[in-house]
Structures are given as structure tokens and as C-alpha cells.
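In the laboratory, one determines a bound structure by crystallizing the protein with its ligand and collecting diffraction data. In a computational setting the workflow is compressed into a single prediction: the sequence and the ligand go in, and a structural description comes out. We illustrate the idea with iron/sulfur cluster.
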Amino acid sequence: MRDARARALRDLRISVTDRCNFRCTYCMPKDVFGKDYPFLPHAQLLSFEEIARIARVFVDHGVGKIRLTGGEPLLRRNVERLVEMLAGLGDVDLTLTINGSLLARKARALRAAGLKRVTVSLDSLDDRVFRAMNDADYPVAQVLDGIDAAEAAGLAPLKVNMVVKRGVNDGDILPMARFFRGSGRVLRFIEFMDVGATNGWRMDDVVPSAEVIARINAEMPLEPVDPNYSGEVAERWRYRDGGGEIGVISSVTQAFCRDCTRARLSTEGMVYTCLFATSGFDLRALVRGGASDEELGAAIRRIWRARADRYSEMRTAQTAGLRKIEMSYIGG
Ligand code: SF4
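The predicted complex, in C-alpha cell form:
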């Protein structure tokens, strides 16, 4: 099935909660998402059964990769039950993006439920910088313990995502690269994005991926690597001395909308066809309204075939201010 720009539907990202225990300044700034923030009541969230059913219909329409996101997915109670349900959908590449703070406790149960691998966010090894960026006073050690526990449980290969913001943690690019080099863990550098409408994004705060690569290459020579598949988000590089791989995700300076194969399902059942969408499609109403799988499928076909999103190709200072859905709600 192809969209209006001939892109296939291959990836489904499912947000299982709009809550998080971190308050990362580039995603969920505390001054907006304070203690009185109206998070979604449980009754409005899709149940695991509803998520699994919708995911199955997406798989029937070509989805081969499912990523669970949030907020922080491990905050959703018994999320391993959902992992088990989705792992039962057959040959689907199932993964999870988390902040790592709860991973040490959950790694074994997630692996036992059928999860194969995880991506952990870590924006610095410097405790002062990391605590400032997550704005919830979580230490680096807690995330590193989670990473070790994940690997001990067999969740591999493990990827680490670092959002780079100029003047905040760009000084940590080289320390992070040195730390993860030769570890078998793939470190990816993400350009600071104008997601949502609350993170105060400015182009001046963006460190272009080309600069990240140049900084690392100057000390640890790199060479480009071909993508694993068309539509892969991260551009791959490897150390010439065999020290492993890194990646860059460059939504701001090197748009990759041309082969974007991703749909997103929010925790309350809204489908969004772009990370920078301003509106979505309500599948929960269909599900709770008694729709059949065929009717759900028809809705998904209608949504995808009409899709023409290419936000990153059109980004301007004006578009940055649009009331786009929040990253913490749609989950990346
Ligand atoms: S901006 Fe939208 S269309 Fe472009 S790559 Fe990102 S999610 Fe896909």
C-alpha cells in the first residue's frame, strides 16, 4: 500500500502513555508539563487488547516493524503483557524506545515477553549536564545500569540516542563517542527538532549532523555505511579502525521525508502520519464503536493513501511555530 508520494507503510510507532518521569527540556519542558498538567485519564487510553488489535490490522497492511514509545513506556503498568501480545503478531520487528531509568528492573521480563531489542536515550555522561537536560534529577549511572541489565537479559543490539543541543551538551559529543566506541552499542546523534510547540526550538541551537561527524572524524576516523533498508531513519557511519558504528538522525538539515514509511498511533488511539502533524485520525472511536477489522482496515487504507506529509522538507521559521502534536504525546 502506497501513500500519495508512493511511500509504503512499513513502520508503526505506538505511544503507550503520555506520561514520563523525566522532563527533558527539548521534549517535555517542566514549565509546561508541571504537576497540574492534565495528562490523559486511564479510561481514555487504548487498552492493550485494543492496541494489539489495531496493530494486527496495520500488520495486515504491510507493517513489519513496531516501536513502542511514550512518554516513558515503562511507566505503563504491565507493559510486558502488551509486548507479549505484539510479539505474537508473527514476523514483526518489535522494539522499544525508553529513557532507561526503569530498565534495570524490567529488562528480564521484557525479554521473556518476546522483546528483542531496545533503544535507550542518554544525552550526556556528565551527571550535571544529564540531570539538567532530564530536569528530573536522574543520574547517568541509573541509565547505564539499565543498559547493562538489558544486554545481560539478551536485549541486543542496543542503540543509544543522544539529542544534541548547542551550548547545552554538544561538548559531550566526543566523550559519548569515546565511551560507546568498541562497546557494540550503536550511538546515534539526533539533531534538536522543532517537535510540538513547547520546547522553544531555535535553529541556532541545532548542531548539524555534518558538524557532529566532522568533530568525531577529526579524532576517530569514520566512513559511511550503506543503509540496512530504504527508509532507515539514522544515517550510518563506522569507525575505520573497526571500533563499531554510530548514526546521525538529521531531520532538520538533511530531511528524509522522501522515503518515510512511518505511521504513529497515540495512546488514545489517534493516528498521525507525521511526527510534526497538527491533526490526526481517531481510530479509538471506530474500535469502541464496534467497527469490524475490515472497517478498521478501510480506515487505515484511506488515511495512508491520502498521506502527503513532508514537513522536514518544508520547515521554515514560520512552520516551527505551528501547534504541532507534542513529542511526549506521540513519542518520536
Ligand atoms: S517530517 Fe514527517 S514525513 Fe518527514 S520524515 Fe519526519 S515523520 Fe516522515
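The mean pLDDT is 96. Keep in mind that any predicted model is a hypothesis to be tested, not a measurement.
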